[in-house]
């Protein structure tokens, strides 16, 4: 791993090389300088070493290196003169040549000068192909050679994007290895202490996300956006200002209002996974920060262990769920879902598959099995001692699962895994617990067994197994997407993962058949729906007003038929103790068509009891 510096013209040498040397020193690695020379397409790609180079660009690079060596930059133990390699890139495109070098050498950091000194272009993915295509951390420097080349003071401007962490990490290295005085800063609207305190907490969280422990040398400062003079004064004291990529407006403003610091736009690696790409190159990266990664692993490992706390909470949740099912109370059943900790070891089993960790998998499986037996036992006992053997609707509802339940479990588990990995989304776990009911199906099975309703018990057990398998598979998949996986698993561990995954997939395929048949049966039976839909308020009020003016006439029912096979768009039923004239029907039809603004509307007005007068059409 090394630092790769791109030089495309002589004017860039004085800007890129001194900073690239500082970055290499900070990261305790070598520096590779890539001098680009345009060449016809037939002659590339070709990289040559320093011995074959004689052009002016390389001479300019060597001159700056010699000057820095004289000043002691290369004599530091972490960066010796032999640790700098100059290569020449023959290629029609400097960007393509650099991306090829990145692909071959996998540098830690790529450093290049901006092609547009004004900052209007080159600071975003949309305007900078090197930022867009590089698979390494990449810094684009703005400001030219007229600005500072020292690292005495470094400021990281936080703009709440995914690249802030990379900027903070680089600044922390400059603080540690180059004794730079680092300030991490952000601007908040207003001067109120509450707003400033929010900003301080955001900066503290950012340092945590960057994996930095408490460091008194790195200052955190929150400016008020209503005090631009203070912000400008602080910026002009810096040697380097680092900003996250896609902050083009900030780059332009800094270049226009400052004359001392170099402005660096940094993009983090690995390559961002595009969630949405628009004119500004908006992208999304779901990978975890080191702190969130550690919290996730620790939380699931602890929650997957069989403990007295786990069994106590699960036992209480099972009792509440059983009583709620017997009482036919949805609210009580939902409350039990929020109390039950049974999903945690299931997510832990998914994590075990993602990390190829059989030890964690066995621990989670032991907790699931003991929790299963405890819940089933408690629900059976409560069902056995409860008078009567009435199967409530809440119990019966969990005895007929279908394919849709499998889909619900899959998506809910994926949501749970994602929310656990994102501290700001932890509140969503409650919703996931409700969506994926785990304890109520088991309690339904236990109560059904106590009541000797074996078919319903089997259906409820099938629902639990469906949820269990779907949660483990979906959680494993989401954790892998988030990068929570092991890269050092042995062949034996990988074989264990493949065997478990194959078994789970096989179980899903076996379960899919009865679940699909249940879904088809539910569709064939149909769902209850009203025979008619209500009229709009305006139509109902107009018809009611007219009918009230008629002697001894009342509206029995009025609405729009729900069946597509009905021969009318609107049906109105009237009743009267004596025959009614047909003029009533005509007037009501006219009112409905007028209010619904539909002259061709088919309206049936039906007279009940004595109906319509004889002889009228």
In short:
The protein is an alpha/beta fold and about 625 residues long.
The geometry reads as extended
DSSP strand tally: 15
Strand content: 5-15%
* Overall residue-averaged pLDDT value: 81
The helix tally amounts to 21
Layout of helices and strands, plus pairs?
Layout: E1 2-7, H1 13-27, E2 30-37, E3 46-48, H2 56-70, E4 84-90, H3 94-105, E5 109-113, H4 129-133, E6 137-142, E7 153-157, H5 164-178, E8 181-188, H6 193-209, E9 219-224, H7 228-236, E10 240-244, H8 248-257, E11 262-267, H9 290-304, H10 308-327, H11 330-339, H12 343-355, H13 358-385, H14 393-397, H15 403-421, H16 429-435, H17 439-450, H18 454-481, H19 491-525, E12 532-533, H20 537-548, E13 554-561, E14 570-576, H21 582-596, E15 603-609
Parallel strand pairs: 1-2, 1-5, 2-4, 5-6, 7-8, 7-10, 8-9, 10-11, 14-15
Antiparallel strand pairs: 3-4, 6-11, 12-13, 13-14
Helix pairs in contact: 1-2, 1-5, 9-12, 10-11, 10-13, 10-17, 12-13, 12-18, 13-17, 15-16, 15-18, 15-19, 17-18, 18-19, 20-21
